[in-house]
Amino acid sequence: MTNKYIYFVANWKMFGNLKTLNSLNKVTSFVKKSKRDKFKIIYCPPATLLSPLNDILKKTSIKLGAQNSHESENYGAFTGQLNSKMLKAVGARYVILGHSENRQLGESDNLINKKINSSIKSGLKIIFCIGETLTQKRKKLTKKILSQQITQGLKKIKNKKNIIIAYEPVWSIGSGVIPKKNEIVENVNFIKDKIKGIKVLYGGSVNGKNINLLKKINNLDGFLIGGASQNSNNFIDIIKKTFN
Ligand code: PGA
What we know:
Elements: E1 6-11, H1 25-33, E2 39-44, H2 50-57, E3 63-66, H3 84-89, E4 94-97, H4 100-103, H5 109-121, E5 125-130, H6 134-138, H7 142-153, E6 163-167, H8 181-194, E7 199-203, H9 211-214, E8 222-225, H10 232-242
Parallel strand pairs: 1-2, 1-8, 2-3, 3-4, 4-5, 5-6, 6-7, 7-8
Bound molecules: 2-phosphoglycolic acid.
2-phosphoglycolic acid binds at residues 11, 168, 173-174, 203-206, 224-228.
């Protein structure tokens, strides 16, 4: 990889508790010993762990991110929801939006667009997930879907400097299967042609084995890592291998 620095984003999904946070001292001491300008690490724990994790990460270069946000940056009568202002207040600097697991629960491109807008207003950086399903891939609709998700998700958003795209083929998430190298190269180029200067991460079953292949993809700016990020040793292993 030839980029200035590589992003490693840990998406813990609905996993983790206060005890799990203890294992992160392995990651924080690894980061302290490493060259800082090589990578950016962002941890996105469940909302229950944002505040305690913020206390741990405060003294490190690791940044905190949330996994979703309500579309309004204002307070309101929305039971169970959290807005971008609240996330920012507990230390989050990033938020993952448009994840396929939330799209599958009914989040539309339009709703994701509102979430991106309000999160930008609150001063968060966005990790905006896009990707095709297996059926769409088989029907050769990948580029059409990516294009649609980008156009609608980023509608009326002029300043894209705080947006990072995570290209996550839905069929690859949690399946252990990743696309062929040339497919990733092609789709990432397609995204970068659509939005000049945007950073693009790859996400979907990234692990300590396939990182040896994924790290050779020069147009990538990093990785969004689910399952393998929940174990500190596995996560560190991925980072180390990227630079070996
Ligand atoms: P995975 O998840 O690494 O477990 O496939 C990635 C994601 O959903 O962001």
